Write a sequence for this structure.
């Protein structure tokens, strides 16, 4: 029996996770899925109850289960709390302690939604790219960091962007391996023209490619150009591998080619056999939280990725993916993609198709 830990979190997190629960229950009752669900408060919700965004108990549990599904964290309610206990700090700690360094962020444009994007249909129809974002290093974690007061009374804020050879190599390896199962092309995005860590990134990726993956087509691209190319012609890409910060930006940007950020799931993976962390790429959306109008598809597809990558049920993942596609083909639409369905109605539409 496998175990899934649900961390609904804040804002729209609990709303979209409720729809995942419905789907899990249906797969257990009707499709022979053997899965136990645990649930813990996370982020601001955990801070409110326990004074910390991630309790030791929840952190320990996250490392013991087979997969963790996170809803969303953060919101204006916690804007004033201490930096080290803000909701986002809980998420960074979770990612780091689970050692899920490889964040797979697929951007796929469903045929039914090719007109929902702000980009023209012909630019996005058929889009299927995979952004591989490094998730446990870079400027998100680099030391030193802080805000200090200078002798002249000014304040100075600083962060450190840092990558080691092994950190770059392990994420590049994931990208090359994935590419082999797809269109066999990798674009590595960095800023080697201005950053030393970017230069090392380019060198390490080049070396690894030469050594172990010369059958894969590798292209280096400066991250700013990559960002432009993602709106000019996103279909030129197959797999994009990039660092933590650029991956955060480029994946939000890529989501717009699919119609809505409410559609995009992600899987964060570590070494083989370790639990994966699954999260929609969207945030807690405080502007619509509590209204029951958020799109649950990103969360549902994050569970789909969990079935595939951590729970050993690629067969059910295929069925769930097909159900989402079929619900969209039948016209099911939440507000973000031009419809009127509520979160629960969208969940029901996927369930019906399943
Ligand atoms: C994401 C989010 C997070 C990040 C935030 C909530 C810390 O934007 O997963 O893309 O920056 O990684
Ligand atoms: Mg982000």
């Amino acid at each position: 029996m496998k175990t899934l830990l649900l961390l609904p979190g804040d804002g729209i997190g609990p709303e979209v996770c409720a729809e995942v629960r419905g789907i899990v229950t249906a797969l257990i009752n009707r499709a022979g899925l053997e899965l136990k669900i645990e649930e813990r408060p996370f982020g601001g919700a955990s801070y409110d109850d326990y004074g910390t965004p991630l309790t030791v108990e929840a952190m320990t549990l996250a490392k013991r289960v087979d997969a963790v599904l996170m809803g969303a964290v953060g919101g204006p309610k916690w804007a004033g709390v201490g930096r080290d206990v803000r909701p986002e700090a809980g998420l960074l700690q979770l990612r780091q302690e689970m050692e899920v360094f490889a964040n797979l962020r697929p951007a796929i444009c469903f045929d039914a939604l090719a007109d929902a994007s702000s980009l023209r249909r012909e630019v996005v129809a058929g889009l299927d790219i995979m952004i591989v974002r490094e998730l446990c290093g870079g400027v998100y974690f680099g030391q030193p960091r802080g805000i200090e007061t200078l002798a002249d009374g000014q304040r100075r804020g600083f962060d450190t962007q840092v990558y080691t050879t092994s950190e770059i190599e392990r994420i590049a390896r994931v990208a090359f391996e994935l590419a082999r199962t797809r269109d066999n092309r990798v674009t590595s995005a960095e800023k080697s023209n201005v950053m030393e860590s970017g230069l090392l990134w380019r060198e390490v990726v080049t070396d690894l490619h030469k050594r172990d993956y010369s059958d894969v087509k590798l292209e280096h691209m400066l991250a700013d150009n990559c960002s432009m190319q993602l709106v000019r012609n996103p279909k030129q890409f197959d797999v994009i591998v990039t660092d933590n910060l650029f991956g955060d930006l480029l994946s939000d940007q890529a989501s717009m080619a699919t119609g809505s950020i409410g559609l995009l799931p992600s899987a964060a993976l570590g070494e083989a056999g370790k639990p994966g962390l699954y999260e929609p790429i969207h945030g807690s959306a405080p502007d619509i939280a509590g209204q029951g109008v958020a799109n649950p598809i990103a969360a549902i597809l994050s569970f789909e990725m969990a079935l595939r990558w951590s729970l050993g049920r690629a067969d059910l993942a295929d069925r769930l993916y097909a159900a989402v596609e079929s619900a969209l083909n039948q016209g099911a639409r939440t507000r973000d993609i031009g419809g009127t369905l509520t979160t629960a109605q969208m969940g029901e539409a996927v369930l019906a198709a399943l």
